[in-house]
Amino acid sequence: MVTPPTTGNKLYKPYRRPPSFGDVADRAGRFIYAKTAVERPPYTRETLATALRFGTDPTGQVFNDVMPRYPLTDRDMSILISYLEALSSEPSPGASSKQFKFATIITDDVSQEDRQALLLPLQTFIAQKNQQMGMFNDFIKFGYSPTIDMQFAFRSATLDIWELKGPPESWPGQLAAYYNANPVFAVLGGISNSDWRPIHEFCEAQRLPCLFPITDFPVVSETDWYTYYFNKGYTQEGEAVARYLNRLETISTETPVLQIIQDSQVGKALAAGFRKVWKECEQQEVTTLTLSSQQLLDQAALDKLLTKHKPEVLILWTDAELLPNLPALVAKLPANGIVFVSSGYLGKKTATIPENVRDRVYITYPYRLTPYVGSKVGGFDAKVPILASSKDFGNRRITSRSIAMLQQTTLQGLNLIYDNLYRDHLLDIMSMQMDVTVRDYERFSFGPGQRYVSKGCYIIQLGPGLDPPLLQRSNWVMY
Q1: Which residues are within 8 A (CB) of 325 and not within 5 positions of it... i.e. 6 or more apart?
Q2: Could you give the domains of the chain?
Q3: CA-CA distances (angstroms) from residue 324 to 155, 313, 319, 352?
Q4: pLDDT tens figures, 188-215
Q5: Half-sphere exposure of 217 (CA within 13 A, CB side)
């Protein structure tokens, strides 16, 4: 089924559908089209009104039944046609037939090392785009006639660095100043150690695509549109624990579960993810305690809490300061008691979980376990060994994730928007991509309206030794 563009600048021009699968060529090399009219003349306001009311184009071709018919009055029809005429009449800001303008966003809490890890792939990407444009211009000078695909694939590009300083509440004003001075087509990546919400809300307000920023605190929303995230950050780790527990046959509605949250942004994000999915699974609310960093170091107080609540499942959304006391906490649990922790929160210290309790401790791990073999070697079902190691804990993968964002998703979208230089169209194109195998995640999955492309998170345990192997205890995606 073919759905041609419905904007004024397309409707009022002749349309010829390009070749597609199912077409065959006759002896003269001309295409015999499998579906729809080969071409139609430009619409007028009168023929467009007929098409909208009765479902026939200027040649008399009848539209597919899935195309609605709109029995509008003359006044309402005039309003609708005027809207279509104005729709996407000009390219989005930051885009032209020759150039894309991009920006990336860096906050002042980012280290110089992390800053360079982000900028290196971005600046390389821009340099490659400009080099390709130069080569394309040289081909044109020598009389080369490009195909339609090639004609729109080459554009030069610029990259502005929007540096945000000071408290997050001051960021919207700084972003507005940058944007007003030089509007861009999209934000490529970006990095912050703080909540991404002020940037997210600015991009929503400006209808500005923000593609895969490096943040542990994305905005989790079912309705917002303009920011693509790698995943839900800490929230996704909390969701994974809820799904894993819900699937365990040894866990019933009578099993006492105690969730201890460190009073921090990270702890609250992990708990929010767990709470959301646990509720969706129609499980009873678990006992939840929020403790300060100082309270978490009071072993006697923790012992009293465990004695009081008698949990069989202990969820610890805390940082690594608690790890030395972990054996004492496990000792207070029954023989079948288990503990869950977040590798994102523990970071590099995850590998130091005391060996004598590793068989009782389960860990969230939102990255790839098996080697990256590419989409054409082995596929998703390939039986390959786990090569991720304890040395990978705490690695933010800034450069490798940025490369995947640029080369395996963003570039695909930019190449396929052709001359439809509209931000929303870029997001639509990206949402229709096939699953992509990437280096840091098992895969990226896309779909209309979906804005978190890595949907999985492993539950693992540590093996023995100073460099313990990672033992897989769940699938990548759990339902």
Answers
A1: 297, 299, 302
A2: 8-86 (no CATH), 99-233+397-431 (3.40.50.2300), 235-365 (3.40.50.2300)
A3: 56, 19, 11, 9
A4: 999 999 999 999 999 999 999 999 999 9
A5: 15
